[in-house]
Amino acid sequence: MKIRVLFFARLREQLGSPGEEVDVADGASVAALRAQLSLRSAAWGEALEARNLRIAVNQDMAAVDQVLKAGDEVAFFPPVTGG
After folding, report:
1. Does 83 reside within a domain?
2. In what side-by-side order are the strands of the sheet with 19-23?
3. What is the CATH number of the domain that holds 42?
């Protein structure tokens, strides 16, 4: 199934991409997507396996065990602070 993946802030810079459409297995979780993308290269693995990485599915914060559906939008971003 196809989902839309977006990368924000330093992840966009590290990975050289604002996002893309990705094929994942039916019933894949956020963790499975993260693992699939991390296998692309050492740089991808390092960027996506960061401990403080935040993930949203369809603009709602998501846990890594959340199951994805076709057409979902998954965003990966570092924590942000503001003043």
Report:
1. no
2. 19-23, 2-7, 73-77, 54-57, 60-61
3. 3.10.20.30
The residue among 82, 14, 4 whose CA lies nearest residue 50 is: 14
Q: What is the pLDDT of residue 51?
A: 82
Mean pLDDT of 63-80: 94
CB 75 within 8 A of CB 4: no
Do the domain assignments include residue 82?
no
Greatest CA separation for the chain:
41
Q: State pTM to two decimals.
A: 0.91
Whole-number Å distance between alpha carbons of 2 and 14 = 23
What is the domain extent for residue 17? 2-77
Residue 78 in tokens: 């570092």
